[in-house]
Design brief:
Keywords: Carbohydrate metabolism, Lyase, Magnesium, Metal-binding. With 402 residues, this protein is an alpha/beta fold. It is 38% helix and 19% strand. The structure holds D-gluconic acid (GCO) and magnesium ion. Residues 210, 212, 236-237, 262 line the site of magnesium ion.
Length: 402
């Protein structure tokens, strides 16, 4: 069996997506997601110039060998661009293998560990009252877990506050827009939101919060401690994790569960955090961390330390990643939760898929492969539109972590 051709499809049905389609001499094709929000064209070039020419003629059934070829063979290991390109190839090859086997992907991974996948939605508002309403809306929709983000008076566009009610899309400007940040105000305001949420809806729902890399370890420890009475499911990205050791200080001061990993690319980014049991949930995802082949290694390492998965699932992860992640989540023994930000109807139409949502859970389908396709004719109607993520500055102009 041989890979006969491969192409990269860029489309913008409301937001940009980069998709790799691999064709074979048996007529079976596979697709993989290669989207990197705000830096899409870098992965397009990596695939077109440096990956596709190398894999033509290879046997698509040799998924592991092709993964190693692209990882070790690049010499320049790791990094968000390389690992997304590898992920796109890997997912397309798993799709092909599962289609050849006439099985849904989760069967090839080891079969079902659960019937459905618990997801969390992203509720936001410009202040506490609005966020409380938004959480109520998610509860009405049947969600069992909700991440609550609020605007903070005095901060221009704090992280996570969207324009729509169910859709949150940060990459929305032809050049990066400038948002604000003030840690002191956020530390005063965020715990009050959780107090109000528990007062209003009780303790029957999981609540989560994203710190979006904004706090220093000491500030994160303080926030975690203040949030303890509200029993969060997790506090996400409480501090940047380039220095994995930073989480030790947070860990020493709070029992609020910690989650991190949406910007990690490989097992090496998570190794110390996992081995030292500094986190509770690992958030790496299929597209960001080298595909199914590599994410499986990360999940297995985490399982040794009773750390569970909680994959990133923002709108910039295409339905191809979501579909594949759901097969992964259906199999992975140490599953925790799956993030689920809804795609728009335009996006869903370009990527026909067989997963569905009901009562706070997502269900992967039984179609052979990962169950997601791309309608190329429709995709062609939505040309690429440059869109950057915002940046964040403190009041005095100092650049901060967005
Ligand atoms: C999340 C994330 C996103 C990211 C986005 C960047 O937890 O969903 O933090 O909102 O900011 O994926 O592209
Ligand atoms: Mg996040």
């Amino acid at each position: 069996m041989k890979i006969t051709s491969a192409k990269v499809i860029v489309t913008c049905p409301g937001r940009n997506f980069v998709t790799l389609k691999i064709m074979t001499d048996q007529g079976v094709y596979g697709i993989g997601d290669a989207t990197m929000n705000g830096r899409e064209k870098a992965v397009v070039a990596y695939l077109e110039e440096h990956v596709i020419p190398c894999i033509l003629g290879m046997d698509p059934r040799r998924i592991e060998d092709i993964w190693q070829y692209l990882y070790k063979g690049a010499y320049w290991r790791r990094g968000p661009v390389t690992m997304r390109a590898i992920a796109a190839v890997d997912v397309a090859l798993w799709d092909i293998k599962a289609k050849m086997a006439n099985m849904p992907l989760y069967q090839l991974l080891g079969g079902r560990s659960r019937d459905s996948v618990m997801v969390y939605g992203h509720a936001n508002g410009s202040d506490i009252a609005e966020t409380v309403d938004a959480v109520g809306h998610y509860i009405e929709l049947g969600y069992k877990a909700i991440r609550a983000q609020t605007g903070v008076p005095g901060i221009k566009d704090a992280y996570g506050v969207g324009r729509g009610k169910l859709y949150y899309e940060p990459a929305d400007a032809a050049l990066p827009s400038v948002t604000g940040w003030d840690t002191r105000q956020a530390l005063n305001y965020v715990p009050r939101m959780f107090e109000k949420l528990r007062e209003t809806y009780g303790f029957g729902y999981h609540l989560l919060h994203d710190g979006h890399h904004r706090y220093t370890p000491q500030e994160a420890a303080n926030l975690g401690k203040m949030l303890e009475p509200y029993q969060l499911f997790w506090l996400e990205d409480c501090t940047p994790a380039e220095n994995q050791e930073a989480f030790r200080l947070v860990r020493q001061h709070t029992v609020t569960p910690l989650a991190v990993g949406e910007i990690f690319n490989t097992i090496w980014d998570a190794k110390d955090l996992i081995q030292n049991q500094l986190i509770d949930y690992i958030r790496c995802t299929i597209v960001g961390a080298g595909g199914v082949t590599h994410l499986r290694r990360i999940a297995d390492l985490a399982a040794l330390y009773q750390i569970r998965t909680g994959s990133h699932g923002a709108t910039d992860l295409s339905p191809v990643t979501m579909g594949t992640a759901l097969h992964f989540d259906t199999w992975v023994p140490n599953f925790g939760i799956q993030e689920y930000m809804r795609h728009t109807e335009e996006t869903d139409a370009v990527f026909p898929h067989d997963y569905h949502f009901a009562k706070g859970e997502l269900f992967c389908g039984e179609t052979p492969g990962h169950g997601v396709d791309i309608d190329e004719q429709l995709a062609a109607k939505y040309p690429y539109k440059p869109a950057f993520l915002p940046v964040a500055r403190l009041e005095d102009g100092t650049m901060w972590n967005w």
